[in-house]
Write a structure and sequence with these properties.
This protein is mostly helical. It has seven helices and no strands. The chain is 61% helix and 0% strand. Helix 1 crosses helix 3.
Length: 140
């Protein structure tokens, strides 16, 4: 392991720090507000920030944290070094790495990119929600 590699603890701490800073800037939330809205206790948030964990954080808490802050869970899982869905890793080269997955990966990266304006992220999420819930029309 080279010295340039970042541990999952450090990468996830950076992700959480950015999320907290954004919540403070965009919503005026304190860490207490963040804990209330995400369902993740203050002590857990501070442990995540400190990188003070050996076993991975509870994925349900990570999902709740991301959902309350309108952040892509995939970005949190990437920071933790886990597959995007938090599932068992699959080998590359299979059917799961086709053009649809590549498009989805690009969208997730845009949503996780701090340089993409919040308004653009909002439009992407609105479009995804619309597409996810619209009725499917069958051909024929």
């Amino acid at each position: 392991m080279g010295s340039a590699e970042v541990s999952p603890q450090m990468a996830f701490a950076r992700f959480v720090r950015r999320a907290i800073d954004d919540a403070r800037e965009e919503r005026g939330w304190t860490v207490t507000d963040l804990a209330t809205h995400t369902g993740v206790g203050r002590s857990t948030v501070f442990r995540w920030l400190a990188g003070d964990w050996q076993d991975y954080p509870e994925l349900a808490k990570v999902r709740g944290f991301c959902a309350a802050l309108d952040l892509p869970v995939a970005a949190a899982f990437r920071a933790l070094g886990l597959p995007d869905a938090g599932a068992v890793p699959r080998r590359r080269g299979g059917a799961e790495d086709g053009p649809v997955e590549a498009d989805v990966r690009v969208i997730l990266e845009r949503l996780a990119d701090p340089s993409v304006p919040a308004e653009e992220k909002h439009h992407i999420r609105d479009l995804l929600r619309y597409l996810a819930h619209r009725p499917v029309r069958r051909a024929g």
